[in-house]
Amino acid sequence: MGHTRLGTIPKSRKWTAVIAELGGLEGAVLPGDRKFSEGIAAVARRTLEAAEVGLDKAANQRGLQYTFYLLTQLALSAREGDWPQALRRIGIEISESSSVFDLTVEIQGAVDRHISAFSRPSDVSEMAQGAAGEAITSLAASEAVTLFGSGRDDLQRAIRRLSTKKGFSDLGQIFFGRFIARFVNFYLSRLTAGKLHQVGEVSSFNQALQTHCEQSARIVRDFCGEWFSKTEFQEGINLDNASRFVAVAVSKLKSELQRQRAES
């Protein structure tokens, strides 16, 4: 099967505005530079305005939907006594010495197998998988390592913390923030190459963009935790209701960035 691509950057008034915002970043690419931080926010807003149709389509892609669903099942699986068996039911295999890195590789593999069976690989799926891996790593890595090293039991305890209302709120914010950052950067990567000349400048740009998107994703933080807790209690989480939640969460994020644009 083919690979669904988001396509090339179109030539339009909105993309011309994005390029103009990028031009304003030159000479202000130092971490902590207020002009740079404000410029990054403007670039993100302009880019999502220009790529709005693509974001709407992304919210309905199986790769994003299933990746989020798998995160819910991963968190719930850690509550069970036989965690390895619970993980096998969602296509994840770990050993007694598995690390957070091993777990994220397994998550990506499970998503790949699902997409191969029911859809086709896509840029959006790759963004979602990367965002999921980063979210799990950022929240569970330090918790899964003890003075005696790390192992499956430590890893389970770290993941179980994400199955609470607060824990899944944190997970949802980072996941959607990192996804939006990757989505924006997909469109910007070919533009920033021409505007930011040094490796350090590109790195600073990417880090600032990620931070801005994660902060913007606070709009869905509590929403994620409340939905997770309520839905699991009332009806159980499945791919259908998780997919509907993804569409609403992405819509909330888009509205938040539109609000920021209107106030700037």
Descriptive notes:
- The chain is an all-alpha fold and 264 residues long.
- It has one domain.
- The protein has helices at residues 13-23, 34-50, 52-59, 62-77, 83-88, 100-118, 123-140, 152-160, 165-195, 199-216, 221-234, 239-263, and strands at residues 145-146, 149-150.
- Helix 3 (52-59) packs antiparallel against helix 12, helix 4 (62-77) packs across helix 6 (100-118) and helix 7 crosses helix 9.
- The longest helix is centred in the last third of the chain and has 31 residues, at 165-195.
- The protein is globular, with a radius of gyration of 19 Å.
- The model has no long low-confidence stretch (mean pLDDT 81).
User: SSE order, as H and E?
Assistant: HHHHHHHEEHHHHH
Indicate the overall shape.
Answer: globular
What is the percent of helical residues?
A: over 70%
Q: What composes the largest sheet?
A: 2 strands, antiparallel
Mean pLDDT across the residues is 81
Q: Tell me the number of strands.
A: 2
Q: How far apart are the termini? A: 44 Å
Structural class: mainly alpha
Q: How many structural domains in the coordinates?
A: 1
Q: Rg to the nearest angstrom?
A: 19 Å
Assess the beta-strand content as a share of residues.
Answer: under 5%
Question: Given the structure, what is the number of helices?
Answer: 12
- Poorly predicted runs are none
Enumerate the strands of the largest sheet in spatial order, edge to edge or round the barrel.
Answer: 1-2
How would you describe this structure in keywords?
two-stranded antiparallel sheet; globular; mainly alpha; 264 residues
